[in-house]
């Protein structure tokens, strides 16, 4: 497994600051945020201008480019994301499921959209991943399994985020066991309580919440998972750099301890 972090944690700062601080915290790699409104890092409207800088930052700070997060399923936006990923050397693009929970029609629309995007991902030689998300059409293990059954493309996978599964009222450890065969990316953060959102950024830090992250990592290890495990902390755009660095370092240390514990 490779420990990385989504640059959205440093959404209030420039891209080089995210690279520099994550390297100092000891991460193996980085997931680039292409999330409008949350960061100005990988801005897809001018990705061609940014590509050389991103490659240089990766080499300068010794951080592997593990993934990109781009939430929209708009085909034109997603094609730009795939083009950027192919050129820059980013293997995984994570998007949101869209739709509404508990609506069979909405779930089918998400499946159809994701299936079409997976075919586009094949064209560019990259992998599209989607995760269960509170309030969306794919929000728990049963809906995730339906997506896995419907989309068989080798360029499609599941992005598992234990915080969303936890807030759906399930055990993240048991949920991961059910879908791990198709997991190609992990978004990881902790969560205290069962509220709608993940909580304040500092309470999303690994080890501060209620989720059995050690058990979660053990499932990954037992199943031979070797992909990215990317910290995703949202809501810190107005945080000081010291706060962001503390969250990054604390979370990485906790995850590293989990990896050591499972051998």
Give a written overview of the molecule:
The chain has 10 helices and 8 strands. 49% of the residues are buried. It has a single domain, classed as Divalent-metal-dependent TIM barrel enzymes (TIM Barrel, Alpha-Beta Barrel). The radius of gyration is 17 Å and the shape is globular. The longest helix is centred in the middle third of the chain and has 21 residues. Strands 1-2-3-4-5-6-7-8 form an 8-stranded parallel β-barrel, surrounded by 4 helices. The mean pLDDT is 96. α9 packs across α10. The protein is α/β, with parallel strands linked by helices and 263 residues long.
Features:
263 residues, alpha/beta, TIM Barrel, 8-stranded parallel β-barrel, 8 strands, 45% helix, globular
In short:
By secondary structure, the chain is α/β, with parallel strands linked by helices.
Write the layout of secondary structure elements.
Layout: E1 2-6, H1 15-24, E2 29-33, H2 47-61, E3 64-69, H3 75-88, E4 92-95, H4 104-124, E5 127-130, H5 141-150, E6 156-160, H6 162-167, H7 172-179, E7 183-188, H8 201-204, H9 213-222, E8 228-231, H10 241-261
Parallel strand pairs: 1-2, 1-8, 2-3, 3-4, 4-5, 5-6, 6-7, 7-8
CATH architecture: Alpha-Beta Barrel
Secondary-structure element pattern, one letter each? EHEHEHEHEHEHHEHHEH
What's the story with the biggest beta sheet?
8 strands, parallel, barrel
Number of helices: 10
The pLDDT mean sits at: 96
